[in-house]
User: What shape does this take?
Amino acid sequence: MTQSGPNRDAERTAGGRTPAAAGGSPDNSTPSGLRGAFVLLAFMAFGDPALAADAFSTDWAMSPKSQARLIAADGRLGGFEIKLAPGAITYWRDPGDSGVPPTFDFSGSINVAKVEPILPAPKRLKESDGGVAFGYERGVVIPLRIEPADPSKPVTLAMHVNYAVCEKICLPAAARLRLTMPQVGGSPYAGAVEAALSAAPTPIAPADFGDLAVDGGDGWLFCPKHDGEKARDLFVESPPGWWVAAAPEPDERCFRLLLREKPKDGSFPVSLRLTLTGGAHSVEATLAAPAPEE
Assistant: This one.
């Protein structure tokens, strides 16, 4: 079973930066000398050595500029935790102007019917090449909702994750992790996973989300239903081959959505997944965008 985040266009994944070799992890086929170098690099980047695994976590998978591990809140809720070196970022399910989203493969798991990664709401981050990324700085915990095949039996979660870490260059990173989920409570990581879960956008009905109307020949005007907060941000996810960018209007009440790319065989209405951050809580909905005026 594989779960992955969408990427707008293949040519945008590298973002014009120079890729480096993927980082090592406990199960990667990385030479032992290089693994030792990665551990030393992590020590220098993070200021202290990675903590060893306990009953509720795996060892850290070390990569240049990052380290990652699998943690458990309980038997049905886990988390993929990434720690980043100062100045480094990693990406949301839509990476923005460049970068790549994380991809998850749980096919080696035992007694697992389904795993749902739930990404916390992103931030808009300026990159060294002048682009804008959607993602996280310093680190992130991605909650994992687990559905067992047989609820009466224990679950072993095995995951292979690929993600990107970018600073001045973009470094692909990978982690192969395996953890038998606890059948007892008392996890020291439960609070961190629950906090990350509460930071994820809440799906709501389109009628409760806001109004999307045609605004000229190249886009739309979206006005959310506010909860009294003006300082909000909007992220737009479009189908493959489409590219729709968002920017706030001067009054900060509405957003202008600009159609930048459309596939030759694309037709309207097009489904846009909109995520509104800030305010009392981040929310998301999928809206049908009609054809702009010609």
In short: Residues 4-50 have pLDDT under 50 and may be disordered. The first helix runs from residue 32 to 46. Residues 2-198 form a domain with the Immunoglobulin-like fold (CATH 2.60.40.1250).
